[in-house]
Amino acid sequence: MGVALVIALLEVSGLWADQRLEESMRVSLAWARESALSLELDGLAVRAAGEAVSAYLTGSDAYGEEAKEAIGEARERLQQLVEADHAHPDETGLRMQLREYQDRVLSRLEVAIAPLGQQGEVELVAPLMRAEAVYAYESDLKRLRDLADRLETAMEQQIGSDVERWRTVANVLAIARLMALIAMVLALGSLLQRRLITPLTELAEAATRVSCGDFDTKVREVGDSDLASLQRAFNGMTERLNAYCDEAREREVSLRAALDEAEAASAAKSTFVASVSHELRTPMHGVLGTADMLLRSPLDDATRRGVMTIRASSESLLTIINDVLDLSRLEAGRMEIQFGPVCLRTLLAECIALVESRAMQRGLRLTSQVADGLPEWFLGDSGRLQQILMNLLGNATKFTEQGEISLRVSACGRRTDWLSFEVADTGCGIPEAALRRIFEPFEQADGSIARRHGGTGLGLAISSRLAEAMGGSLSARNRADGGAAFRLEMPATHCSPPELVARSVGLAEGEFTGHVLVVEDHPVNQTLAEAMLAELGCTCEIVGDGAAAIGSVEARHYDLVLMDCQMPVVDGFSATRAIRVAEAGGRERHTIVAMTAGAMQHDREAALEAGMDDFLAKPFTVDQMREVLSHWLPVRA
User: Could you write out the three-class secondary structure of 436-492?
Assistant: First the structure.
């Protein structure tokens, strides 16, 4: 009876110990589920951040919706974790801290993606700043993972301790029972080890690898139990994370390809503009040069007016060509600003003189005023500054029917090293809606301007970008008493005047001596160059390509070589290099001046790099040719 009672007590105790062991196992399984939910929450947060960054950088609402959906799913996982916490209280308080940090991460992400979708398409205003805001949650990410690691360690220790303790009790009780009971308990322990402990250990190790970024991690799926469901869910989560990473890499490749295409398109546009400019400037040189030569000859009044009309129309067309070139340079970031000493009063006098006759023809009063205390000389790009002022004065003259146009220069507020140029008129003013877009390319105040006054709408766009290239700004406003005012503000550091260089001033005709070789393939330009050189007192020979030029230079010495750059057979660059190579062997050196329709900065650099001494851009006039020849040929006595 007593033995039976002991056996019964041992059996009951064994059953009780087994129940406690099973309870420890259930706690372990619940913890594994909680770990999986935490990993899913982390993955969803990463996904939301990636989708939000894509939305801000690409401007697509679709990414924004994906980000919000991921945040919603992450909130569901957090709610499940909170409910699981109620079922399994944590004496250490680590779970509560972990949930608080998980909630903080999601809250920061929700704040960062809140602007998405509020105004239709995502506004690409400061996208990098918003993308950085998306990743602000990383400030708590390390703390969150530290807490997760601490909680995981504590739970593993607690679960392991409970399992080991109750297994020991069960084993001790089993020893006191029959050998059959001992064998049964050992078999049960082996089963539990194979079906639960090992898979959980594998799952924990896999979760650690995933947390380190190895999204290719997989665990073995065994049977159809809850643990197998957890294993399948874990594998599905890693597959989704891996897919998100692959998609992100594909998007990066697509963005890089789009960037390469954009750069290729920009290069093609620059090449096209340069080519078209060259092809337009070549015949323009014939028109303008011939008109200039005709105006220097005796003409009756009617013929002279016709030739002047031809020259004025050609100059207008050349202005449009130059505007297109300037805009292309500015858009490509290739506009070079040449800073040097600028005389303020000389600059203003030249601008006023150039526009004064047109203003007088329209009955307009033209005034200029310079405030006291301004530097006489300052550092700037005289040519580009004059281009801006002439554009503003030209527009004011064009759009003012009566009244006056004024050019005022003053210090820019309290900045003594800045100048403010203001061109004001009494014209029709600018509609308020147009003020916001008037500095955009091809924009004008209203659609009727092109019909009434002509123009391409490029002048103000180019002037604005030139001002920015010089470190300043260009703005416009309507005057209270009618008309418009344009203000150019730019840095103007005081400097000393340049050293004066004495120059010889020749006669109006026949001022140079010398025999010139003209290398030009265009028949009209050949004739024009010969006439201009004769006007300036020079004799010349003409050849049509670079190969002929090389032969001519080998046959005799010329006082000057005018070399076109783009020609058949051998171009001007190759011909110049060949001539310089021959001269390096002891031949007498020739002065070679590039005479080309290529007006881009890289054309000038290419000419100098090839060994040419100077540069004369087509179209040019007799006076411009005289200016170049004065540097290289002697003046006739």
Answer: CCCCCCCCCCCCCHHHHHCCCCCHHHHHHHHHHHCCCEEEEEECCCCCEEEEEEEEC
SS3 of residue 340 by DSSP: strand
Q: Is the pLDDT of residue 450 over 80?
A: no
Token output for 356: 């004064």
CB 450 within 8 A of CB 368: no
Q: Do the Cβ atoms of 399 and 427 come closer than 8 Å?
A: yes
pLDDT of residue 415: 75
> What is the identity of the amino acid at 300?
D
Contact between 192 and 50 (Cβ < 8 Å): no
Q: Write down the residue that tokens 């400097």 correspond to.
A: 495
Region for residue 483 given its phi and psi (left: phi exceeds 0; alpha: psi -120 to 50; beta: otherwise): left
Cis before 568 (ω within 30): no
Statement: residue 371 has pLDDT above 80:
yes
Structure tokens at 374: 């301004």
Q: Identify the CA nearest to 193 among candidates 308, 365, 21.
A: 21
Between the two ends of the chain, the Cα-to-Cα distance in Å is 150
The structure's pTM equals 0.48
Partner residues linked to 486 by β-bridges = 423, 476
Handedness of CA 320, 321, 324, 327 (dihedral sign): negative
DSSP element (H, E) containing 594:
strand 592-596
* Strand 592-596 versus strand 614-617 pairing type: parallel
- The per-residue pLDDT for range 141-155, each reduced to its tens digit, is 666 667 667 666 766
Rounded CA gap, 49 and 56, in Å? 11
How many Å apart are CA 308 and CA 302, to the nearest integer? 10
Print burial letters for 412-432: b (CB count within 10 Å at least 16), e (below 16): beeeeebbbbbbbbbbbbbee
Residue 505 — very low, low, confident or very high, per pLDDT cuts 50/70/90?
very low
